[in-house]
Amino acid sequence: MRLILTAATILTMATSVLQASAALQPLTPELMLTLARPSTASLSPNGQLAVFSASRYYVDTNKSIRNLHLVNLAHNNTLSDFTPQVADTNHDNALWLDNDHVAFLSKGQLFVKSLASGAEPYPLTHFPIDISNVKFNKAANLIAFSAAVYADGSLAGAKEKDEELKDSKKDTALAFDTLMVRHWDEFIQEKKNNIFVATIKKNGDKFVVDGEATNLLLNTGLESPVIPFGDQGDFDISPDGKEVVFVSKINTPDNAWQTTTHIYTVPTAGGAAPKNINPENVGAASHP
């Protein structure tokens, strides 16, 4: 019951405080557009703090700002800005590395901000391309994330080919020799979502990536998160950090008229083929 009440309190606090400027005003289309849109809150390991992101649209500039907010659950659920509300801010996917450090996505990379020092956020990752859908496992000091890559499965290769196509390709035409061709309102791209893992460690007073990222879906033909709506809910890390479980659509010749997705497990050490744990499934499986 405590966890349920805490989640409800966070949402209530976020909604009431972030919408304070809208109090006692007529509900107009413009006002609806500018109401804050809070994300799910992430709870600190000790349960005393929570952090969430909220997006606001500004009619006068025709831009949105998404920044992070901190809720102190131990002191009357007080709410404060964790990162500033400034132009071109897009902070999201907040997660706790420990009770004093929060990592979050900004401009396609992970940044870390300390609660204790009050210093400016610093970059944790410097991957060649943007990453998304980040998760963290404390037991193994492991981050898992998704990135769109080409057939070679590498982050550096994706950056190199993107730059090559930008310089050489003068049209938007796409050629297909396999299904699927289109999903809902999106054409299938050559780049596929793959899940990567990397370990992090403390170097002095800062967190850093320890070694290279490993593509767990390399040479499998599988894709996760599943387009076009897949997100963090499409994969998770085991409590001991030794495995990742994920959803992937079948990659058979009839996949264009099938909704079947399967659940797979794969070791985070890499070098092993994913194991399908519900091969008999017909239809969509989700949220492992």
Automatic annotation (TrEMBL):
Keywords carried by this UniProt record: Signal
Domain of life according to the entry: Eukaryota
SUPFAM superfamilies: DPP6 N-terminal domain-like
Keyword match Signal: yes
Record's signal peptide: 1-19
Name of the protein in question: Dipeptidyl-peptidase 5
Organism: Linnemannia exigua
Gene assigned in the entry: DPP5
